[in-house]
Design brief:
The protein is an all-beta fold. The chain has a single domain, classed as UDP N-Acetylglucosamine Acyltransferase, domain 1 (3 Solenoid), CATH 2.160.10. The chain is 0% helix and 33% strand. Strand 23 and strand 24 form a beta hairpin. The N and C termini lie far apart (42 Å). The model has no long low-confidence stretch (mean pLDDT 96).
């Protein structure tokens, strides 16, 4: 495994890291990933294999992004977030190949400590609350409150989650 060492972070030799970049100390970028110029990635992040980070995307500190995830312009991910393998983040509601809608990108926010499970889809303009948990395969069409566990298509609340990631029948505070 050949890693390239930059000032403060490292990337696998197959990764593309465009300049100028804003990548924090202790971050690792794995095989075949692409970080575009203008992306912001915090400290101590783990960017898995085949991850795309667009210019204008913002990723906080200690974020874990598993394989095959695209983080598009307009997406902000706060600290300590986990994005499961192949989860989908989108930024346009009604895409058409022949129509340029870059001015219509919606803002998507994933707040501190949230988890998005494998193959879950987050539609554009949604906010995922602090320490919320999106189950694998869920399709999130609306905002999700702090500490909420959502499942299904479309995603619906079935329980609450603690800060530590345990299911609970009571809504946590703080």
């Amino acid at each position: 495994m050949t890693m390239l060492y930059y000032k403060g972070f490292k990337a696998h030799h197959t990764a593309s890291v465009d300049r100028p970049h804003n990548i924090g100390e202790g971050t690792t970028i794995w095989h075949y990933s692409h970080v575009m110029a203008g992306a912001k990635i915090g400290n101590c992040c783990n960017i898995g294999q085949n991850v795309f980070v667009a210019g204008g995307a913002v990723i906080g500190n200690n974020v874990k992004i598993q394989n095959n995830v695209s983080v598009y312009e307009g997406v902000t991910i706060e600290d300590d977030v986990f994005l499961g393998p192949s989860c989908v983040l989108t930024n346009i509601t009604n895409p058409r190949s022949e129509i340029n809608r870059k001015s219509e990108y919606k803002k998507t926010l994933i707040k501190k400590g949230a988890t998005v499970g494998a193959n879950a889809t987050i539609l554009p303009g949604v906010t995922i609350g602090r320490y919320a948990f999106i189950a694998a395969g869920a399709v999130v069409t609306h905002n999700v409150d702090d500490f909420t566990l959502v499942v299904g298509v479309p995603a619906r609340r079935v329980s609450w989650m603690t800060r530590e990631g345990d299911r609970t029948d009571y809504q946590p505070k703080g």
